[in-house]
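Complex 300.
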Amino acid sequence: MRTPASASATVRVPGTTANLGPGFDTLGIALRLYNRVRVEAVPGTAIRIDSPIADDARDGATAMLAEASEAFFKRAKKRRHGFHIRLEGDVPIARGLGSSVTARLGCVAALNVLAGIPLDRQGLFELVSTLEGHPDNAAPAVFGGFTASTMVEGVARAIRFPLPAQARFVTLIPSFEVSTPAARKLVPQQFSKADTVHCLTRVALITAAFAVGNLEALRGCFDDRIHQPYREALIPQLSSVIRAGERAGAVGGWLSGSGSTIICLTLDHADAVARAMARALPGSRLEVLRADASGVQVTR
Ligand code: HSE
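Predicted structure with L-homoserine bound:
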C-alpha cells in the first residue's frame, strides 16, 4: 500500500471550556493551554499510540482514534493507512477541558495534512462534532475564540468571534477526574418553564456581552439551572469555589464542560481570584489563562 508523500505532520490543539454555565452543549471558549499531536504514516493499517497515558486507558484511546481515522478517510475519500500517533501537552484527561477533542481533532487534522488538506476547517469541525456527539468543545478547538454552536438538521454549525484581550480565565483543575458520560446521566430529561427561561435569557446575554466586549455585564449571568446543580453531586465544592472567586473580584464562574475543572472569569484580579479558589479546593492545579484566538494549527 502506498503511504502519503509527506510522512509525518504535527498539529497543536487548544484545550477548551464548554457550557459557560447555562450555555449547555452550545457555548465554548478556546484557551491557551495546548496538546500537540504528531502523526506518522506507516505501511499497513495498524495504529500505535505513543503517549504518557495509563496502560488501562490505552485500549479506549486506540479505539477512539481508530474510529476518528476511519471517519476521516471516509469523509476525505482517501485510502486508509496505518499510523503512529504521539499525543502530549498540558490539557489533562477527564477534567472538562476538551482533552478528547484534542486527541480526535489532532489525529484527523494531522491526517488531513498528510492527505494534502482535502478538508477545510468546517469539514474538520463537522467530523469531530459527530464523533463527540456535541459540538461545543469541537467548535472552539477548531476555530479559536468564543463560539456558539449546535447541530442544525444534523450538521454542526458554529459562529465564532474573538474575545476581549483583558479576559483572564482562572482555571482550577482538581486532582480528581469526572467521566463525561456519567456526568451527562445526571442531567434531567425535562426542565420547568422557569428554569428554561432563566437559562436561555442568560445565554443570550452572555453571548451578546462577550461579542461587544462588555464583560462587566456578565456579573450574575453564569448562574445555571440546566446541569450544574445536578453535577454538584460529582464536584461538591463547585459553588463554594465559584463564590470564593467572585468574592475576590471575579465577574463569575462555571463548571468547565462536565467538570471537574472550575473556571472564574476575571478582568484585573487574577492572582487574588486564583488564591481564593485554591483555598476553597486545596490540592488543585491552578492556571491563569488567556483565550486562544487561532484554534487548531499545523506546526510541522
Ligand atoms: N456540553 C458537554 C457537557 C461538554 O456538559 O456534557 C462535555 O465536556
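The chain is about 35% helix and 25% strand.
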